[in-house]
């Protein structure tokens, strides 16, 4: 028999090295498909565009607001309004990151390369978190500054050095990350884009509308604990009614994300590819 | 080496693989044969850990696939269905695979050259022909320079030149001492590529061995004998464990012994023979014979 051309022994890599290699692989995957790049750019565009639009329209109707409304006006959280739409792009991207692997069959190559499926999901999650945090910071800080320049005409602008403002604006990036991870978890559970996106949209946009019809006592019991409503508490500089405190709210959103990822991970290990 | 020990796989009420045990040795091309729906792909999916067996054990080099860290360095697989995101270029597909298993980027260029895709490496794989897709799949399988290779129907969609290329590639990989398992539903293809065969039908092992072994085991390989005293010869042959059935014109159709055995038996008993001939089934015929009862889908209509 001829000698093997292959290297005879490989030192067995550590679990950490496997994880690191998979983070790198997921990064390569993420940036080598055009639609991913476009979706990330869309996230920034939606945040800034709609944030500016809503800020401008609020200023144009400022004269018509009553005293209470004026008193409650939170220039920081208001400037981040565009994130309400941008979250859809990020959430869908998180969902599709997994479901597209199933749809194209690439999941077989992925599991073949990394049969340690929890390591794989963790690597996907960490990579996506890094990317969304970066995109989220750009989106929220840009939205904040553009918003404040619009509010400045009425002398309402907040400053980044004001108490709670830096937390709220950085919170915008954290919020998007939480929503993105929720999408990733839902995608991992459902494996299909249609069902995953529909569930995400329902959870973020439709359930809040439905609970909005309930009496306000229900609002406090249910409404403020929904993922988006809870997470958006982190935008608030001024205390808002029917809202959790900033970090508690974000913690609730993060809990949704982590629970969905945990269920997804459990199913990932148990199911055949 | 690939080893299956009493492996069963059920999907709900369907039994795809039924108490299957076999071994695939290194240094040989092993053909994995069976009609469509026999359980070949399911078996291969279990070998690479995509599906978990309902019971039994599957190991590669003594380890279960899910225990392998950086498995692409040990096992390369081309599965039947495509496993590539169409929006990604061939180069990027191989790059992320390499990254995931700590394989250097230089190796990506090497395998692209090896399979002849270097010129189209930057094109999106969605626009690839079936043959190019197969080549990309083979590049991915070879990426980690693995000691074990699994290829599910690798010649599908390849042109004659590509088929020739695959045959030579498989041969050279086995000659380097690697374990090579190739599935096919075409016996003729296996006759040209494989050293050994594993034949399955309805998830069960039907035959295993060298091509000659498998052909001999098929009942259509037989010895024809025309003798002066057919009844006496028949009893003698049956005593020796042969299976004898009467053919037309008093001819005996004998399986389980060869012409030499029949000659010796007849000579010892002083029975005159008029004809003694060996009939070997073609590989294709042997395969049909072996899997006839095991085909999940057979053409309708009464047997002729």
Chains forming the largest contact: A-B, 42 and 43 residues
Specify the helix fraction band of chain B. 25-40%
* Total count of helical runs of at least 4 residues of chain B: 10
Please identify the oligomeric state.
heterodimer
Secondary-structure-derived class of chain A: mainly alpha
Please count the beta strands of chain A (DSSP E, at least 2 residues each). 0
CATH class of the largest domain in chain B: Alpha Beta
Structural description of this entry:
The complex is a heterodimer of chains A (273) and B (304). Helix content of chain A is 74%, strand content 0%. Chain A has one domain. Chain A is elongated and about 70 Å long. Chain A is an all-alpha fold and 273 residues long. Chain B has 304 residues and is of the alpha/beta class. Chain B folds into three domains: 2-74 and 146-216, 3-Layer(aba) Sandwich (Rossmann fold), CATH 3.40.50.300; 83-142, no CATH class; 222-279, Alpha-Beta Plaits. In chain B, strands 5-6-7-3-8-9 form a six-stranded mixed β-sheet, with helices on both faces. In chain B, strands 11-12-10-13 form a four-stranded antiparallel β-sheet, with helices on one face. The longest helix of chain B is centred in the middle third of the chain and has 16 residues, at 160-175. The radius of gyration of chain B is 23 Å and the shape is elongated. Classes of the chains: A mainly alpha (273), B alpha/beta (304). Chain A binds chain B through residues 1-7, 10, 12-13, 15, 17-18, 21-22, 24-29, 32-35, 100-101, 104-116, 272-273, and chain B through 27, 45, 48-52, 65-66, 68-73, 77, 79, 81-89, 92-93, 95-97, 99-102, 140, 145-147, 175-178.
Which characteristics define this entry?
heterodimer; A: 273 residues; mainly alpha; 12 helices; disordered N terminus; B: 304 residues; alpha/beta; Rossmann fold; Alpha-Beta Plaits; 3 domains; 6-stranded mixed sheet; 4-stranded antiparallel sheet; 13 strands; 34% helix; disordered C terminus
